[in-house]
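Bug #77: duplicate submission created two jobs. Keeping one. Sequence:
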Amino acid sequence: MTRAAIYARQSVTDDELIDVQVAKCEALAAAKDFDVVEVYRDNNVSGYKARDEGTAFSRMLDDARAGRFDVVVVRKLDRLGRSLAALESFAAARVAVVTIDENIDLTTVNGRLIANLLT
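Kept job's structure:
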């Protein structure tokens, strides 16, 4: 079974918006038969700024490098950040990314092709 992490980020403090993101990601994970091993939440964290130690993103990236999960599920790519650095970090850790809004699934050949075209 594919082990998944869920990541939700919101630039403003709003627990409800984070909860909606998590619920949508959980539904997608269930539909794909992913085993969700961790949910990471960053509330009031900008996508334009580096996410240093102390953020859920930093912990998630450390866990990805440690091999705790195979795929990260996010509502859309910009939740990970506003640059390619985040995608490259997950690729280096051999962790795929699956999005809901853009319907990108880097666990598939077509998904990787689309991501390459977008980047």
